[in-house]
Amino acid sequence: MKRPGEKYEKYWYAGLTGFCVAAAALVIKLLFDNLGVLSGVLSAINTALMPVYIGLIIAYLLSPLVNKMDKYAFVPLLNKIVKKKEKVKGISRGCSVAFVFIMALLVIFGLVMLVVPEVVNSITSLIYNLPGYYKNIQEWVNDVFKSNPKLANYFLDFSGTIYEKLLSWLQDDLLPNSNKLLTMLTDGVVNTVNVLFNIFIGCIISIYLMAGKENFCAQAKRLMFSVFPIKYVNSMLSVLKETHVIFAKFISGKILDSLAVGVLTFIIMSIAGIPYTILISVIIGVTNIIPFFGQYIGIVPSAILVFIESPIKGVIFLILIIVLMQFDGNILGPKILGDSIGLKSFWILFSILFFGSLFGLLGMICAVPLFAIIYRLIKRWSARRLAAKNIPTTTEYYRSIVELKEEKEQEGKDDKK
């Protein structure tokens, strides 16, 4: 026996579907018509959450050090001092966070006070001595190209244009900004109060995050298991764990590698008598954080600076820095980073170009570990799909295949057995 109105149910569902589609279309149209308003709302939300972003970054970078201090320093020490063992963990975490945070601030402050004045002095000296350097280059060009005056004139015209543009940029842009930067760092005068406020609040947030990270992670897992099926949560947790491992190894390894490269650059350039040693070391060390392109970004302006003062020392600098970069790329870098990425050179280049164009400098820095995660997820997904079809999953199997016939599926199944 049919329910009353059962014959009209299909019309009801069809009407409801049509209404939902029309409502969705209307919402999409409203969003497109008010993109400016939506962009403003998102921008306001992003601005409000900026201290949280800063806090998350600081906490993520310092958490490994906090864990080490917990495990190897404060917990063993407090176990000998504190009678109530249940309080050891909480006291140890507080001591570890305070110690690591204070040490990080002291290191940053020390590096800034040590490096920034020297960098500014180098820039100032470069600007004041630039006319003399250009005169030296003119004399060197005339000596080298004595037999070919036309080529010498062409080179001098070209270098003159570069010299005027460089001098204008140094005097009008770089020097005023560097002096402002030094004033901000030494006198505490910051033009944008919001930046200081966001950093200050971000530091406070990072302390809370580091102190209670286990509790925050447990709350997040509890929420995930309450909302999603267990198997999906397990998969998400596995991906998040691998993401953390890749990012932690890459970021900490890249910072350590860049610091080592900067120190080695300073030592080698000091021994070789290369001018602007501290400035060049800072440029090479900082730009080395950017994978693949960073080395070239740092070498080009550094080589120009040295070449302007002394062409011979410029050649020596290029030889030394190329040798150093080969050492870093083939020995030091792999030793520090290990096999945390597992990407070929093409994919590294592709990821930097892609994410760099979308997110700028931050995208270039995070491109490699982010793409490594995407690459691994796609690889695992395709392997599961191939295994479900009883087809071999190894890449080598497909190198010589032009067409895969259906009977190959059975062969793959037999090979598995």
List keywords for this structure.
single chain, 417 residues, mainly alpha, 13 helices, 84% helix, globular
Account of the protein in words:
- By secondary structure, the chain is mostly helical.
- It has 13 helices and no strands.
Q: Care to count the β-strands?
A: 0
Supply Rg.
Answer: 30 Å
Order of helices and strands: HHHHHHHHHHHHH
Main beta-sheet annotation = none
Alpha-carbon distance between the termini? 53 Å
**Overall morphology:** globular
Q: Number of helix segments?
A: 13
Mean pLDDT: 76
Q: What percent of the residues sit in helical stretches (DSSP H or I)?
A: over 70%
In short:
By secondary structure, the protein is an all-alpha fold. It is built from 13 helices and no strands.
Secondary structure blueprint with pairings:
Layout: H1 9-33, H2 35-48, H3 50-81, H4 88-144, H5 149-187, H6 193-211, H7 213-227, H8 230-272, H9 277-287, H10 294-309, H11 311-337, H12 345-388, H13 407-416
